[in-house]
Amino acid sequence: MQHFAIVTFGCQMNQHDSDRIAEVLRGAGLSQVPEPEAADFVLLNTCSVREKAEQKLRSEVGRLGVLKRERPGLVIGVAGCVAQQEGERLLKKLPQIDLMIGPDNIPELPALLADCEAGGPPRVRAEFDLAAPSFLAHNLAQGPALGSPSSAGRSTSAFVTVMKGCNERCSFCIVPYTRGPERYRPAREILEEIAQLTQVGVREVTLLGQTVNSYTDPSASFAPAAGERASDWQHTAHERARADESEFPELLHAIARRAPKLARLRYTSPHPHHLTRSLIRAHRELDVLSRHVHMPVQSGSDRILKRMIRRYTVAEYLERVTALQGAVPGLTLSTDIIVGFPGETRSDFEQTLDLVARAGFVGVFAFKYSERPFTPALKLGDDVPESEKSARLAELFEVSNAIRQRYLSSLEGSELSVLVEGRGKGGQWGGRSERNEIVHFSSPHELAGRLVQVRIVRANKNSLLGELAETVDALAPAEFAASVAEPMAAKPLRRLPLSPV
Ligand code: 5AD
Fold first, then answer.
1. What percentage of the chain exceeds 70 in pLDDT?
2. Based on the domain organization, do 185 and 160 belong to the same domain?
């Protein structure tokens, strides 16, 4: 077996997993090819949060099955949430699959592949690593991945996992089932990985976790915060607010101390519960923290939030994000919303529209509710007709797009600090502002990985067009170049999804 290909479905977390899987396989001597047609081993890395993941998987496996008839040696594997969720059951339905591997079993992949090659029945490994959780880190000993340009080894921006699993029990969500209970990565490992990434030129880190801001260091390295933490919320009882505190703010401070070259620090996805006074203080104190936060709200109706088991009210959510925006002027918010949750009336939905306007979300990721296996909401039925869900989704996007457009237009004429990611198709440079807006501009200079000032001349639908507002010396090395061993691979631009992905 020589060549592998990975097909990734779903979110950033899954893309990050795919990149780490690729490193594990390369470490075992295989090389990556972009197309399944050229591979001996194809791994489908699945996501089951929203989409009818199994249907998608079926059609992909069907397509690969045709290849397999021509090349019986082709090994088909399934990783990620569907593997965890379905395991043996899926093997019975889709006999073309040779191996299934859950998110916590990735390091075992080379051994499983060797078993497959030796013949024998299909293999399933989908056990949570509860006793000794492990976290896949970037393997910086390997160069940038061929065919996987998003691999962060030599690019501007990288994801770093800080925790996995979820202890919340949101009634719509399959994640606690597919990713297991919360497990946290030791702070020293996180700090070490980030320090190493900045050594090879990474300038922006996004901390990843299903409820990233519930982070608590399992190795208890953080000194207890001095004195009582302030938790004087009007809409949250004192005891509850104290229980919401975590060590995430301490982690952010520790990262800022350990990686002073880091230009930007982001995190996703937080839970509103852990948007605590101390996290707000960290935002005020740490310049490296992005002035944009994605804070999923899911609904603007207290009745629906209760049925969703989100454990906060609209007033509580608003009080916390308003406090955050008060502490960090100009901070923007984006959110996730589900429309058509069981029992959602027109009036509930209108409260959601109202909240979107009040909170002024500059990005709304909205989804039609879909029933997921093993979730508590299954017993509520799925009573909002599909046509109504679609109509609500369209209405929500109309409202949120108008807010976004107004916001982007308000940036015309201003100067933004842009972290340059790479050149787009038309040869223009593209990057992200501090608040995560996509900015394009032209320059003949080599700017990948640099922070530059860009004057915004026009707001497009989902991005900004600007011109360089500073003189860049083409010959001057980038600020970090002294510590960069090899030139960075320019990263193709990510699209900011504004509609269901
Ligand atoms: N139906 C629709 N959307 C869902 N999400 C999670 N589960 C479901 C579901 N069953 C959405 C939530 C979450 C995002 C990652 O996906 O908005 O924040």
1. 91
2. yes
